[in-house]
Request: fold
Amino acid sequence: MPGMQRTLFCVSALVLASSLSLPSAEVAAEPPLSRARLVSSVTGFVPGVPFDVGVLFDIRDGWHGYGDPPGDSGMAPQISLSLPPGWQAGAVRFPPSLTHTDEAGTTNVYYRQVLLRLTLQPPADLQPGTRVSLRGHAMWLICKEACVPQQADLHLDLEVRHRTVLANPTWQDWLRSGTGTKHPKPEHHDTKAKGTAR
Amino acid sequence: MKPWVKTVMTLAVGLALHARGEAVPGNKAPAFSLQDSNGQTVTLDQYAGKFVVLEWINHDCPFVKKHYGSGNMQALQKTYTEKGVVWLSICSSAPGKQGYNDPAGWNTLNAEKGSKATALLLDTSGDVGRAYGAKTTPHMFVINPEGVLLYNGAIDDQKSFDPASVPKAVNYVVKAVDAAMAGKPVEPAKTRPYGCSVKY
Reply:
């Protein structure tokens, strides 16, 4: 696929190995400051047909993550996927970030929830009816007054379909909510219709 | 005087007092006088005739932890102080902010971390940090024996807190000091620093 940038992604056995050795997260009762999940626009894909996936970051209120470039300080999220042979991944796409200015400078930040998207191109020779497991790793920084490094192993299982793509109904919610703004985009309402529907 | 005029003037004076400078390579490095962690006054002028490296520091910052946890920073400090370079670590964290320590606390930390810096300077007002335009920890500056700034920017090209990124780094401070000591131009002379924001 033209424009695909495979170089962004480390196909790394190390990443896989580390996912096995990490202790289970969130042992404490306190919820984590942030988390990251690998999510997909589809639950089933057709061999050879590209589809979008995303890394969805949830950030605790009062904290912020960073865009790319991060600005005067901070760090852009680092995402590596270890894709099976024959797969290709496009560049990570960042939604518009917000500007955060304090005495030390200006940074490009996200609040609350942000979805970073990328397009995956599966190979054409996969067997319909089987499942594919995608794995990866994310490192990102969140800050309030202080900064705390974060990391997570990513995984996603998808069904290989014969002819029709199976859309993920939650994807639209993530698109709407994962803008990194302080408040989610309101759901679209047709006020006229609402006013008359009694 | 109309109240709004007074307000504008107050704001203007306030902004001027907190104006952030920018140390520009090729220009004279801003002079300073700070207390070190042993209570001694240290000035930039006293090191005329020597190369000086300035390192902005906050040990609670993940990026600083990367460079000290891996031993990278201490190794650089050792290498260059042995070559006669003066290495000054400067903390601009305000009291109560992350990274701030009193002088005794700094001496304990320096011993724990195995710092090989010439001195640790406390810039609690943040004035020196602002004069240099120090944005991050770490943020590095290299000054030549004539007091001219040679380098302003990141320690290296790995904009990450991941310790695994240290071995593959191109270190800009090494490049700058080595070039300058060999009488060669410093390239790059300016990069974008990376790290935590300085806690002014």
Observations:
- The two ends of chain A are 51 Å apart (CA to CA).
- The CA atoms of residues 22 and 153 of chain A lie 9 Å apart.
- Chain A touches chain B at residues 69-70, 72-76, 78, 102-105, 107, 139, 141, 143, 145-149 (CB under 8 Å).
- Chain A has a mean pLDDT of 85.
